[in-house]
Amino acid sequence: MIFGFCLLSGPLHASFIEQTMGTAVVKDATAIYFNPAALTLSPHYQLILLGTLARAQFEFSGSAQKVPFGGSESGSTTTQSNFFLPSMYLSIPVSERFVAGFAVVANDFNRELDNSPILRYILARNQTNNIDFIPALGIKINQFLSIGGNLNVTYAHLVQEPIAAGIPRLNIPESRSLNDSKANSLGGDFGILVKPGKKTALGFNYRSAVAYNLQGRSTITGSQSISSDDYHFKYWTPARSVMTLSHFLNEKLGFLGTVQYVQWDIFKTVSVYNFATQAASRVFIIPKAQINYHFHNSWLLTLGTIYQVTPKWVIRVAGTYNQSPSNGRFQIGPGDSLITGFSMGYRLMNALSVDLGYAHAFFKKEEIDIQTSQSRITGFNEGAHDAVSLKFTLTV
């Protein structure tokens, strides 16, 4: 029996430019999310509406063998994920020293598989919905130093549809189970901003890990049906530490560099309780199963530049090396990636500007060699990711 059960990590995404250029030195209201201390850089009333559409596609090529019976299949399987990421940011100056903010950041994405049978019972279709409500406060200590923090009140909803194999020669059809779970949780950020001069800024931000105790129902329907109302497991988004250095050579040209350290090693194993599955003609509830991840911590390194072409036009370009946390001995994940992107901003009027951004990620081919008591999967996984974003900024 092979369990078609796979959890997909869903950290929040923002537009490429906000995520990779000046992550801890953000000069607008998106600082609510990226570094609350940087709210003091723009002490104005500001409303930002930001939307991102993204698509990722990966192809696994290799073989999957059932153990101990020895039957194997070779070929390729394509998975595709679509992302819709709307967000809103509002900054409100309280006094010369204090700037408050509030953000709503949503994350909606799914993963679909093609009809290739090679990983049909290994990977699962899924749908993830996540929304964060983030109050924040930036405090200007003096002209050189600011600090800030936020509170992340978050809700997650995860739906998975793993497939359990049947036995065609005995007229036992395969079955698709539905695992539906929800959770609320809490996290936060603490940030520091240092400004040694008018043209230079150094930002630090720490984001806490968030633990989700997901609970819901696991169901199989068909010729035989079974349901569990005590389906549950614990999941996380990892803690991360970010440092950004921003320096402008003059009023038009500036450079930024960012280093991020993401503590993925919180993902060692995940225990899943009371989920429905099928073995041959029998459906039943498994009281506990352990999924091995053994992720490793990873680094992201970014270099970018910003050029003010005219008083109304601005161009930003950046490149990021993203070290993958995946472990090819335990999951079919992506390899390291190189992300390139750009954005253009235009000031429509004194109070309103618009930005359009695009990014493309090139993923290194990742070797996969997974061996469990029930299966052996070997091959390679590779893919690409594209994202476009549109941002409106109203400043008064």
UniProtKB/TrEMBL annotation:
The entry's keywords: Cell outer membrane, Membrane, Signal, Transmembrane, Transmembrane beta strand
Membrane topology qualifier: Multi-pass membrane protein
The keyword Transmembrane helix appears for this protein: no
Gene3D superfamilies cross-referenced by the UniProt entry: Outer membrane protein transport protein (OMPP1/FadL/TodX) (2.40.160.60)
Entry GO CC: cell outer membrane
Family indicated by similarity: Belongs to the OmpP1/FadL family.
Protein name as it appears in the record: 47 kDa outer membrane protein
Lineage start: Bacteria, Pseudomonadati, Pseudomonadota, Gammaproteobacteria, Legionellales
